[in-house]
Design brief:
Blueprint lengths: L1 H16 L1 H12 L3 H23 L2 E5 L11 E5 L6 H8 L4 E5 L9 H7 L3 E2 L5 H16 L3 E3 L21 H6 L2 E8 L15 E6 L9 H16 L4
Parallel strand pairs: 1-7, 2-5, 2-6, 3-4, 3-5
Antiparallel strand pairs: 6-7
Length: about 240
Amino acid sequence: MFKSIYFIIRVLGFTISVEPRFWKLKSLTKAGKLAEKDQLLRQSSKQFADVVLTSAGVKVVVEGVENLPPKGTPVVFTPNHSSYFDIPIMLYAVDDIVGFVSKPENAKIPFIGKWIKESYSVYIDRTSAAHAKAALQAGAEILKQGHCQVIFPEGTRSRSGALQTFKAGSYKLAKLSDSAVIPVAIVGAANIVQKNGIISPQTVRVKFFEPLNKSLNTVEMAKRSQATIEQYINKFI
């Protein structure tokens, strides 16, 4: 219980303290000073990830960094999704600015929602085909500018931690932008928040795999990603 209270206080305190940074970020965007914006965004996102993870007692072990391309290369990361902590975990693991393909409800999260919008992320309303198509196009344009995107191909968080079916539509983002697709396995995140809401310190493993062959279609990409990630996760069961 103490760990959970400490976590809430520290994270809330950090998000409030960086409020002036957000407005500076907005002003830099409006002024077209994108290099300065990116530097501030990179610094802030890394600090956010560090505060969230250390406050929860989460240690992240990263493997497969040799499979990551140079900074500035457009990449679509497709990790499994079993915890709200997957976002700070990816922010920590990727040594670059990372945007997320997120559901519209996340825009309403106090303090954090507006940061998501400013961090080269896009919101997809899966209930509207037209909106989803427009959001994917927006995400593709972000990738073409040399940024990275994270999309969770299961479509929603797995509450049990068990891997769900990867959706082929998640890989359209890579096809639209001709970006590399790197499957990512996250193991152990599902255990951070217990069923009673108590935070439990964990060691989480993140594994970056080799980029998928761009000649694969979206169905093949989804199947290949799921099989690769599932094989890795099964080692720890």
